[in-house]
């Protein structure tokens, strides 16, 4: 959305003049990551009462290319607030913005850029170091500031983890609305590439590297959203000239643009030059896996692990391949060797200080509304939290992070394929069990490893329970491994998830058979959906999310349903001529049935994406790469005209602004020539 | 080739503390110790490079790489994609 | 006796990360690796118990213990203590 | 001292009634060690003004054997305060104590015993758990409380580290003044021995064990002070019947009572039973070392290390032997393998809360005084701290703790023997130096080890500087070790100590040659003394301490001088017929010179011990095992009558109470038949 209304600007009232700016300055020395989001501070004069107040809010996606471009943004905010009386804590106030300030953190040089406009009057700008000293503004520093701001905007755009306890006084703007910004970003990426480590990296990595960091992640995301792949290839080719190891970036650009053969060509070239390039080997393994050549994938992945044994990604890929080929023993052994990242938190946008609730001005944007989405009462959600079944709410697997969450995903994949009983059998086969160990009295396990617990994990359904592990021959002892403590813990979490899921399914079957009503809240359905999802019961999860949405809107359920429909959509595009209705059911669909199912998926995708867009808009977020990419899938398959008509048919006449909102996305896709936008 | 004689000082399930004659304290994976070892035992550890195996590995690796390239890295006719 | 073939994955001054064929990641003291080893090398590690050396050690230890006991553990005439 | 005056009871005014008791209750759940010192709380009524106040102080050494014995102690405090008007914040107040409460923490059961007497009236007592619940009093709990209190008293009696920032509102009483208490302690030790681990252990040990913990330490100290060795032997023999590993305790009792042959007999027996008993092997090594049979000592110590490679003590003993025989390469290698204890703090007595300075009532005991000691003005000391040479004050080696301090002591022993240049040469020979390492680019050192630093440590005197380590053959690389990071750090600290010491000696020589005056404060002399002491220049250290005491009294200098004289005294008793004047000077002393020197030492020991006693008394501490043991050395060598006469000659006539104070120590020694008390 390129237009802004008073209703789409959240504000926080400052307790004293310049509070937010002072608190920001106090934060600067301690910043260890990408820094706080950009800040807008406004000084507002009531020209009737002559009272002066100051407010602030956070923003991402502004193109912080120079002081004059920032001044223009500040002027436009000032105009919107000043142009008509603002609804301010229940009353209309004739505010006039007389001064506005913008701050943006530069992660490369650890400086803060500050632009202030006086209205009427001139703009001034300066930069400060993290210790508060004034620094001379240079073009280089402005470029770094722009790139830093772009990274923050792109990296945090669809931050699901931050849903609760997140900043509400934040506007998210699409930073890719004009070609100049994109061009400037790509130029800046190339110039600052060698400093990319300073931007940090995803929580799955121990440390940022030249080839894996937030700057590189942002580069790929920008290419994907703007489809400027050719330009990306040119840039990366220039980087390769300076450093051969950059070849992996080229392969990744080709992968993004669906040029798999070119990608593999580059990968093979690179591996010839450095047969221990773990990144290329892992990528190669993933492609082979996608082509169902697991034999070749194992070779590549094993060499990757041997080349970079302290990197989680290499091990996880190898484990994944073993799971795919059904070699669960090796899968568990490989999982057990995964080097976990224990100390890192994911980057989130953080406040510079916590405002009081009563100082928050959070207007309701009235230009775009869908009643059930826009007017969702937070009190109802809070009430559900109070009455929710505690066993559902506190499932510890739900809060797993980074490498632990990924390892858990691999474990649930195994259990989904073979069941809990079989998993326990494999576990007892490869790991030293407690009861075996007690015979070896002189030993004691070291702190990072442990003995697989005999007692605490039992069969989920007591009836099915058979004694596990007792059949193991004593002579096998030395051949077995000690289980890493974290992995042993994941088995415990898996047990708890399975217990809750099994109980829920039993209840579901019972109620369905008796044709009785479910008495669950949206939150409970959401949680049931999430545990089903973790256990890879996607169909069951999608049903739960649908129940959840049947009672009230839930952004979590909405996003998960979109993910489900997209997965189903891509399954329907598989080159195999036979597509089963779901993974478990072996009967295949006819072409007619496939067509009908696709159409069902498209309609549901569109309706959920529209709701997601309206929800984002209500919370001042006009930028969601996920929404754009998801809609692009539907457009690519069905053509833009069909999608536009679908949205129009439902929303155009109702004057609720929904079509206008979605039209901004359509325009964005047309501008960047997304496939399917030409018909 | 390295060959050393070491005394087992302490032994737990995954790590053993070994001692050299000149008082170097070495953490050693228990899994590599033979059966029947206890604290106080003396072990002889030999470590040498296996160039033959390295060569074999290298050849096998190159062969697999060639196969992958031939299969997926060259512009060969594509399987038809289902479009309805 | 234990004999294993391992691939050197990573190498620093004191610790090497070695990998078995079945994906066991083992931290191994670099000092026990032969010269010229680099990441990617394959090594053969042999470990066996040295019972002969243990016996020799045991005898030597007992002999020293006997000597200590004879010297300082039995009531023999004491050296005169200087008292003025 | 068995008598107490108003002047020897410090008090803290409570802000509100029962403040100290409430704060104590709040502390209980968090106690992880031996707990806070015993507490006495008094409720005082001014029978003229009818004003009521409450006060408290800490105490150690009370025999907390039962509620009635504690009640008697409380009554006697009440009587002393009530018997005459008390000088209270500048005015004489006719206080009457109407209630008194005593608390003592039981570390075995984690309970607090509380006794309250009402005056006039009855006594009542109860016990509470750490969560504040009332617990039934039992004989067992009272025994545990008594033993806990005894451990605290003995362990903390001469706590040098706590000199600054320590509790001043604390009375230290000798807990061994009557035979019944000693008997009860020995019985209690035997009964609670198997729970000894609960009492914690010295900071040099990773974890308390059955054979090494504070209970066992207290047992040995009580035996030593009361000379009840025979009873100790009986008790330990009964323990051995239950657990063979207790044999090491028997050996230690024999060592304490100077029965070295018996000790060795037990040690050899024990090693035959368990040839991997590291404690016995270490003790054996120490004895062999004392007998200068380092060849045998190395055998025993090596076996000890092989038997318990994660224990610091074993390694330190082996390193010490290598230093003694001049095998500095092996000494450094052994030192480098020492497993350090990083996480532990030493046990200190701690307040239950920090009182305000103006609420402290710290009377001056006027019954025993030596002017320079008793009336030392704390403001003068504070002033010295403000003007002190910072390079002296902040020498980091001064704050080394536990195993790091011990390892540093071994390193300074080497440097004292061979000098810095030689030490650097050995260091370059055994450890991988930075410049050697840079050739091996593919490597990187792990976090706990490091490359010996080439640049930062240079020769102390630049003139003498020769390039170290460059002569090393590259082929040696693999034969060398990586230096542990902590050891590398100790080299840095040693360099700083040596630099300051060398500067001071150069200044000293210059000033002495020019017959100029030293312009240093006592604090500066103290610090010069300490750095000299750390570097094993004891003679030079003693001179500095004498200078320090020449300007004003300093308890630190006084204690260190006592230590120095004791060491010299024991050197004069060596069986060798030839005693050198000091370690460096090779000329030997005649018998006449030895006699003269001994007499000099005795007179100086007595005079410093008297001052220490008076200082302790001024700060309400009537119990110092160090004072008793040091005086016992003089008494053993010269006879009690001579010592008594010496004290009498100087102090008897002056009515300053000093002779009475020392006479308490003489009476204690006579009571327990200390050698030399019979003549």
From TrEMBL, chains A, D:
Residues of the signal peptide: none
Q: Which organism is it from?
A: Komagataella phaffii (strain GS115 / ATCC 20864) (Yeast)
Task: List the protein's name.
Answer: Member of the ChAPs family (Chs5p-Arf1p-binding proteins: Bch1p, Bch2p, Bud7p, Chs6p), that forms th
Q: Name one GO cellular component term.
A: exomer complex
Read off the Gene3D superfamilies from this record. Tetratricopeptide repeat domain
What GO terms in the biological process aspect are recorded for it? Golgi to plasma membrane transport
């Amino acid at each position: 959305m390129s237009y802004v209304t008073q209703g789409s600007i959240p504000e926080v009232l400052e307790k004293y003049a310049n509070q937010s700016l002072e608190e920001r300055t106090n934060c600067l020395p301690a910043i260890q990551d990408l820094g706080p989001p950009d800040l807008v501070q406004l000084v507002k004069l009531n020209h009737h009462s002559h009272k002066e107040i100051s407010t602030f809010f956070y923003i991402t996606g502004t193109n912080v290319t120079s002081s004059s471009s920032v001044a223009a943004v500040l002027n436009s905010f000032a105009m919107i607030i000043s142009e008509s009386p603002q609804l301010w804590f229940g009353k209309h106030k004739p505010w006039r913005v007389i001064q506005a300030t913008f701050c943006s953190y530069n992660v490369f040089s650890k400086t803060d850029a500050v632009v202030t406009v006086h209205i009427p009057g001139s703009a001034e700008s300066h930069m400060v170091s993290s210790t508060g000293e004034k620094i001379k503004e240079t073009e280089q520093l402005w470029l770094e500031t722009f790139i830093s701001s772009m990274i923050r905007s792109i990296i945090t755009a669809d931050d699901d983890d931050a849903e609760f306890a997140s900043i509400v006084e934040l506007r998210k703007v699409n930073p890719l609305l004009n070609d100049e910004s994109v061009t400037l970003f790509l130029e800046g990426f190339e110039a600052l590439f060698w400093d990319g480590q300073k931007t940090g990296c995803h929580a799955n990595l121990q440390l940022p590297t030249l080839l894996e960091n937030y700057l590189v992640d942002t580069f790929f995301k920008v290419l994907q959203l703007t489809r400027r792949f050719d330009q990306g290839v040119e840039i990366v080719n220039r980087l390769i000239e300076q450093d051969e190891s950059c070849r992996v970036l080229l392969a990744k650009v080709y992968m993004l643009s669906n040029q798999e053969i070119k990608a593999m060509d580059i990968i093979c070239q690179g591996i010839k030059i450095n047969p221990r390039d773990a990144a290329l080997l892992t990528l190669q393994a993933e492609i082979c896996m996608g082509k169902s050549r697991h034999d070749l994938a194992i070779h590549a992945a094993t060499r990757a692990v041997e080349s970079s044994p302290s990197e989680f990604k290499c091990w996880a890929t190898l484990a994944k391949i073993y799971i795919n080929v059904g070699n669960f023993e090796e899968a568990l052994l490989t999982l057990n060797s995964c080097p976990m990242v224990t100390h890192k938190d994911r980057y989130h946008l953080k406040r510079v200080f916590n405002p009081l609730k009563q100082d928050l001005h959070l207007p309701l944007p009235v230009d775009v509304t869908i009643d059930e989405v826009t007017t969702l009462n937070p009190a109802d959600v809070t009430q559900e939290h109070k009455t929710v079944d505690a066993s559902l709410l506190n499932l510890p697997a739900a809060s797993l992070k980074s490498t632990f969450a990924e390892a858990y995903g691999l474990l649930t994949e195994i259990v989904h394929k073979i069941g809990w009983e079989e998993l326990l059998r494999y576990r007892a086969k490869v790991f030293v069990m407690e009861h075996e160990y007690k015979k070896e009295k002189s030993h004691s396990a070291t702190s990072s490893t442990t003995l697989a617990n005999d007692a605490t994990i039992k069969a989920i359904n007591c009836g099915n329970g058979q004694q596990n592990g007792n059949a193991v021959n004593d002579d096998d002892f030395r051949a077995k491994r000690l289980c890493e403590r974290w992995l042993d813990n994941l088995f415990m979490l898996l047990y708890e998830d399975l217990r809750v899921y099994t109980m829920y399914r039993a209840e579901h079957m019972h109620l369905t058979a008796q044709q009785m009503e479910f008495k669950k809240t949206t939150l409970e359905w959401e949680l049931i959906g999430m545990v089903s999802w973790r256990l890879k019961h996607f169909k069951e999860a999608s049903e739960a999310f649908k129940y959840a949405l049947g009672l009230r809107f839930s952004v979590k359920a909405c996003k998960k349903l979109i993910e489900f429909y997209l997965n189903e959509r891509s399954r329907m595009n598989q080159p195999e001529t036979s597509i089963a209705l779901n993974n478990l059911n072996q009967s295949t669909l006819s072409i007619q049935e496939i067509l009908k199912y696709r159409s069902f998926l498209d309609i549901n995708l569109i309706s959920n994406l529209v709701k997601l867009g309206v929800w984002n808009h209500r919370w001042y977020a006009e930028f969601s790469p996920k929404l754009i990419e998801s809609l692009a899938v539907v457009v690519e398959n069905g053509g833009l005209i069909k999608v536009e008509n679908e949205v129009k048919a439902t929303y155009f006449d109702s004057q609720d602004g929904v079509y206008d909102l979605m039209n901004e996305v359509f325009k964005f896709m047309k501008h960047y020539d997304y496939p399917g936008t030409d018909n | 080739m390295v060959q050393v004689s070491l005394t087992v000082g302490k032994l737990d399930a995954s790590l053993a503390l070994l001692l050299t004659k000149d008082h170097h304290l070495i953490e050693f994976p228990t899994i590599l110790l033979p059966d029947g070892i206890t604290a106080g035992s003396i072990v002889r550890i030999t470590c040498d490079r296996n160039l033959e195996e390295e060569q074999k590995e290298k050849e096998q690796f190159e062969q697999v790489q060639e196969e992958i390239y031939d299969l997926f890295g060259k512009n060969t006719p594509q399987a038809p994609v289902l479009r309805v």
